[in-house]
Structure formats: C-alpha cells, structure tokens
Amino acid sequence: MKPIRLYLITMLLTLTGGAVSLPALAQIETPVTVRGQITSIDGKIVLYPATVRNKQTGARVFSDQGGFYRITARQGDEILVSFIGYVSDSVKVINLAGTQVANIRLKARERFLPQVEVSGKWNAYQLDSIARYEEFKPFLETKEKTLVNTEKRTDGGFGMVFSPFTRGSRKEKDLRRFKKLYEENERQQFVDYRYSKSFVSTVTGLKGDSLTQFTNIYTPSYGMLRTINQEDLIMWISVRAKKWRENPAVRMKENE
Length: 256
Description:
Blueprint: H1 2-16, H2 22-26, E1 32-40, E2 51-54, E3 60-62, E4 68-73, E5 78-82, E6 89-92, E7 98-101, E8 104-106, H3 124-140, E9 148-149, E10 161-162, H4 164-167, H5 170-194, H6 197-204, H7 208-217, H8 222-227, H9 230-246
Helix pairs in contact: 3-5
C-alpha cells in the first residue's frame, strides 16, 4: 500500500508543480475500517448498545446485539468506546488503509457509594452525573426520528411525510435503547448515592451480611428518594430496621 500511496503523491506533485498543501495530500489516504467486538473484561457479557465515536471526525455508531461494531477512520484517529456502567477505553488507528481489528474489553465501574459533599456547589453524585453526560453527550443529543417527518414536504403540500421505516431502523432502535439504559442508570446511581450502604449502616448499626439482607428487602424507590427529606428518610430506615430485627420475615410497604 505504501508504494501506491507514494506513487499517487508523486503524480499529484508533478501535475500541480508541487503546489499541494498537506491537507490535500491527506485526502488521498484510503479510509480505514475499524471493527471488532465489545464485551466485558472477561469476555462473557456482550455490551449492547455500546457507543463508538471517532474523536477526530465526530463519526459515531453503536455496537450491535452481538457487541460488534464497525466505524470509518484514518491513520492517527482515536476511537473512543464506552458503555453505561463501564470504564471507557480507546483505540488508536495505526493502519494506513484496509481493516484494523480491535476487540474491546471494558471493565465495570464500581457502583457509586460515597455520600459526601465535595464542593460548595456540587455534591459527588452531581459531579459524577455531569461527567457521564459529557461522555455520552453526542449520542444523548441526537434527536430520535418520529413517525411523521415534518422536515420534508410532500407534493400535496401537507408539509409532512409518514415514515415508519426510518423510525423502525436498527440505528433508531439502538438510539432509543441507549437512551433508556442511560436514564435507568442515572436513576440507579441516584439511589446508590442517596441510600448508600455506609449511610444505612450509620443509621441502623447493621454491618456485613445483615446490612446486605436489610437493604435487599428495604430500598426506597427513586421517586421517593427524590422527594423525601433527610430527617424523614432516617426515620423511614429506623422504623424498618426495628421491625426487621424483631422479625425478618415481616415486610413493610414503602408508604407505611
């Protein structure tokens, strides 16, 4: 491939008398197809839909249901691979042309546990949430297609086109699934922050297996944790801890 590339550059310089800029030379490079599979670190969990983004060109795709991805790049580009709840990784494109295979193994992030204030303006959960949004921003801000495409106009002048095929495309389904997973993860991260085991242990005195058993039975819903104040939450936990110690088989309802 290198001799062909050098031949093309030589011919271009000859025809133009040497008046060719570096960007123009770069355009004759053949795009590289980067492809592979994205899984968990042990290779046992297929990650779908993982996000794949070319940091230089902005091109972005999702992995498919088998965890496989394919994206176009050029030598020197950096491909960022991410999945909600996992530590991101990146791939440097080293090929000049053809195909570069890069199988990605992502490590699961530790669940958010600390309940501490790290600044006067933002708490730890908020900072973590902001960082997650920035990481996935290009995908989150991609608009979903609707059944009625108002951007196109028909010859009849109605100003809309009914397009079930576009909305039903794999790309659109992946986008909707990704946004749903992102929202679910944000909710779980907030629950883990507001109802951390360290906080419950401080309130109840429970530790180890006892703490795990109690929190498995009694964990407030996301909606409740968004509205209840700290004093009432402490009371809610204390009442249930007392009942649980008396009889672990008894189950109180959330609103009792």
